[in-house]
Amino acid sequence: MASDRSILKTMNSGDIPRSIVVSNISPWTKEEAIVIHFQQRKHGGGDVSSVKFTEDGDKAVITFEEAETVETVLKEEHKIGGVLLRVDRCLDKRKTVIDQIFSQVTARLDHFELDIQLQEAKQICEKIKMEVGVSFEYCSDKCFVICGTLNQINECHVLVKKYLNEAENISSELSKLSVEAKAQTTDVEVSAETRGATEASPTGEKSDVIIATPIVENLKKRLFSVTA
């Protein structure tokens, strides 16, 4: 006999969705009694493919022929020999281990690469901390290190891009306002000069004024690097 963990390791991935883990089995309960119980339709059961007991005998992994049987069995209360059994869905422990490996990852946010000020980078980190729930710190490499789950880091990547886009739009609007203000000043100066030139010129000709609009640089594509 083996533990439930070792039993799950030896199982085929296709058997796990068709299996349940039964706990609190009495020492005198035989495998035959378990098979009969979980094959009966009144208990939500179906055809049993295999029964594997753990080393101490108080648990068993039961695999059915059909995955649908697991759903019907979980809806019922189960007793064998008057003892109430605990029935749980069989979970893929191997997948759990993979999830744990990526449970915490880090990402670097470098304000030099993003071409923003240190204070701006800190404000971005504080925003994503509030929205996503990650943690961050300023490290000796002169960049911010963000820590969270893989899903959180992916969400941070989207938010950082969003914040930088918003900042670029604001900068663009401020730049346009500055150009317009300069243009208005130029118009006033040109009007004054034109009036003077008109008074001095016998033909009364006026000069045309051309105003140029600055081109805003594209947003940098690289936001931050992720490491497990």
Automatic annotation (TrEMBL):
Gene3D superfamilies: 3.30.70.330. One of its GO terms (molecular function) is NAD+ poly-ADP-ribosyltransferase activity. SUPFAM superfamilies: RNA-binding domain, RBD. Residues 18-92 form the RRM domain. InterPro entries: Nucleotide-bd_a/b_plait_sf, RBD_domain_sf, RRM_dom. Coiled coil: none annotated. Signal peptide: none annotated. The keyword Ribonucleoprotein does not apply. The keyword Glycosyltransferase applies. Keywords: Glycosyltransferase, RNA-binding, Transferase. It holds the Pfam family RRM_PARP14_3. Its EC number is 2.4.2.30. This is Positive regulation of interleukin-4-mediated signaling pathway.
